[in-house]
Amino acid sequence: MFQSDIFLYSVIASSFFVCNLNAADFTLSLRNQTAKDSTKTEFERSIKNQSWKATETAFIVCDVWDYHHCINAVRRLEEFAPSMDKVLKQARAHGALIIHSPSDCMDAYKDNPARFRAIHSPKTKSAPANIESWCSRIPTEEKAIYPIDQSDGGEDDDSIEHKQWSAKLKALGRNPNMPWKSQSSMIQIDTEKDFISDKGDEVWNILEQKGIKNVVLLGVHTNMCVLGRPFGLRQMVRGGKNVVLMRDMTDCMYNPKQWPYVDHFTGNELIISHVERFVCSTITSDQIIGGKAFQFKNDSRKIKDVVTFSPSIKNEVDSIKKQWTTINLPPNDEITTVLQQSKVIWFRASVRIPASWINEKGITLTLPLRNPNIKAWLNGNALPPPINKKDFNNPTTLLTPEFIYKDDINLLVIRVESKELVKNLMPLATLMGKTKLVLTGSWQVRVGDDPTWSNIPLPAKFGLGSDLYYEPTGN
């Protein structure tokens, strides 16, 4: 622990102005996928070689925690962590900036110079809007179908092993659901050069102050934190950085028991494919440290590097009878027929609700016309019946403040009992706050009836994909 503020400021000054004699360029092969036509149903890969100045490049280490609630996720991380540490050491030696971002763990670093350095980086006036917030989608993802269902949390543990792991975490004094307290000790932090921050505005201040144009994201988990964190891929793209994902130094949270019912490693590759198509390019660790790109030892597949799943896996009409399936509202004639023949239909989507919308009473939700047999939930909380029951043409429900995640992502689930669901009943729902938000577009739908479908076991921003997201504009 430091004893002198003078010494602390000398640390900051030296880190800002030190000249790295080993500074050099990175020669990278950026892989992405481009659509063959305007339908964006078929894509082809391409490689673009670029040379990045090391002193203009940052490596952001996302959520490489000491513990995780999924034991298989821990095993996979510990398998590639030694290679990740080599990448960071080599990048640092070349003069690149290293930012460690273990979310929710800043208390562990309150006396660390790398954390102090991040907190006291000069504030920039050029920070993108909402840089402090989770980002669930960028415009290029708007028409993309998210490739996996992660709404169960993505755990792929054996049930007995998972119980044993949870018991071990409890014995260690950890919360089995959120056991992380620091970054993994397998990743070295250089306290004289590196930065530590899990805050989007702080990370952005660091990048701007250091003149960073290029960003490499590595860490876990791609389909959740790597994409969505305030310092993640989407926010870096929104801010105009030249950003890539290091695809062999990452993993996803995906359970093969969920759609599209592929093995975990294929699920991971489907997410990487989504990134290459709709978010940013990818690279591999060997481009920094040489040798070969990392591969998981338990990946025994004969066919690897999967970019898409067979269309036969998911036929919308059959799919909605078995699993949550993304459709556009209003539905086409074929899907409408299936829904009309169903006694109970469930819908779900996610919505970002600005704090500026919410007054003392909350905001209002208007449900479909001519559908009195309808129930709704927000973040797993059953919503009260419509305020004006007698007004059949305006069934409005109040969303009270205690149910709302302000300036964050909310899960909206709607259950409809109807034999007369037709296209003109859309939009399915409308939110009225400071302005009106009409929820017409992508929803997940499922027929049948199970009370557990009213919620998912984790916050919507982690559990639902970018294709089920609504956000007000101008707030």
List the helices and strands and how they pair.
Layout: H1 5-17, E1 25-35, E2 43-53, E3 57-62, H2 71-94, E4 97-101, H3 113-119, H4 159-171, E5 195-196, H5 200-209, E6 214-220, H6 222-228, H7 233-238, E7 242-251, H8 264-278, E8 281-283, H9 286-289, H10 316-319, E9 325-328, H11 333-340, E10 344-353, E11 363-366, E12 374-378, E13 381-382, E14 396-399, E15 408-417, E16 430-432, E17 436-438, E18 442-447, H12 460-463, E19 469-470
Parallel strand pairs: 3-4, 3-6, 4-5, 6-7, 7-8, 10-19
Antiparallel strand pairs: 1-2, 9-18, 10-15, 10-18, 11-14, 11-16, 12-13, 12-15, 16-17
Please tell me about this protein's structure.
This protein has 475 residues and is an alpha/beta fold. It folds into two domains: 19-309, Isochorismatase-like (Rossmann fold, 3-Layer(aba) Sandwich); 315-470, Jelly Rolls (Sandwich). It is built from twelve helices and 19 strands. It has helices at 5-17, 71-94, 113-119, 159-171, 200-209, 222-228, 233-238, 264-278, 286-289, 316-319, 333-340, 460-463, and strands at 25-35, 43-53, 57-62, 97-101, 195-196, 214-220, 242-251, 281-283, 325-328, 344-353, 363-366, 374-378, 381-382, 396-399, 408-417, 430-432, 436-438, 442-447, 469-470. The strands form four sheets. Strands 9, 10, 12, 13, 15, 18 and 19 form a seven-stranded mixed β-sheet that branches. Strand 12 (374-378) and strand 13 form a beta hairpin.
Compose a concise summary of this entry.
By secondary structure, the chain is an alpha/beta fold. The protein contains twelve helices and 19 strands.
